[in-house]
Amino acid sequence: MKAIIYKSNAGHTKEYAAMLGAKTGLPVYDADKAAASLKKAMKLFFSDG
């Protein structure tokens, strides 16, 4: 499974993640809630800007 995982303080990153999810068809998860929804052995790509 591929997914977009984001962390947002002001909401801008959340909006951008939602736009990416809509364009790619990938599910979008808040980083604080992603662990409950994703498999433990998933490989992640992380960018902090």
Tell me about this structure.
The chain is of the alpha+beta class. It has one domain (1-49). Helices cover 41% and strands 12% of the residues. Strand 1, helix 1 (12-24) and strand 2 form a beta-alpha-beta unit. The radius of gyration is 11 Å and the shape is globular. The protein starts with a strand and ends in a 12-residue tail after the last helix.
Explain the layout of strands and helices:
Elements: E1 4-6, H1 12-24, E2 28-30, H2 31-37
Parallel strand pairs: 1-2
Overall shape: it is: globular
Q: Give the strand tally.
A: 2
The rounded Rg comes to 11 Å
Number of helices: 2
Strand order of the largest sheet: 1-2
Q: Helical amount among residues, as a percent range?
A: 40-55%
What is the distance, rounded to the nearest whole angstrom, between the alpha carbons of the first and last residues?
A: 23 Å
Average pLDDT works out at 83
What portion of residues belong to β-strands? 5-15%
Biggest sheet character: 2 strands, parallel
Low-confidence stretches: none
Q: What count of structural domains?
A: 1
Structural class assignment? alpha+beta
Topology as a string of helices (H) and strands (E): EHEH
